[in-house]
């Protein structure tokens, strides 16, 4: 496992994993809507009612992308990958509660560590890129996903983009979002300080496009946006 992946995985320890489901829905206004649209975009890309194998990278925590997609498409099967054991355990519990473990392979590690197997029909990478420091780590994970997809297969990428400090109004609104949900003024200041120090998002939508194209994907289409967050779909190049 690379040092970048190890550092990112360590952030999601037992304490952070335990609060992830609640915190993520506050941090991302439209959390459930984004995941619903992810499932819809995959179904629109693959065709509804067909069997498909979906690679879910960074599935730990809620496993929401699997829960939502599985409800829409009962013939899909999933491989859930995450380097954080506490986060993956939470995902596995959610999948078990919904009766989805029979349709899901759970893999502790990185996508680069997946053994050779038939290429996947589609993949998702949600809430991961902005936790990887530097462009090289971002490129490496996207490239690793590309090599495990069929030519033309769709990839959903979702996460924060834009340097946080470069958008003070969005950052202030993000703080107000926490206050709206009951956080104290001190707690909001602490969260703003943490986000400024704890992540490295791509600095623009153009940077996301560039990373995808360098990794072997075509032009991405954005289908969801919420403050710093964006979600895109792109297809693996045919060659």
TrEMBL record:
It holds the Pfam family Methyltransf_12. Coiled coil: none annotated. It comes from the Bacteria. Keywords: Methyltransferase, Transferase. SUPFAM superfamilies: S-adenosyl-L-methionine-dependent methyltransferases. Residues 58-154 form the Methyltransferase type domain. GO terms for biological process: methylation. One of its GO terms (molecular function) is methyltransferase activity. This is SAM-dependent methyltransferase.
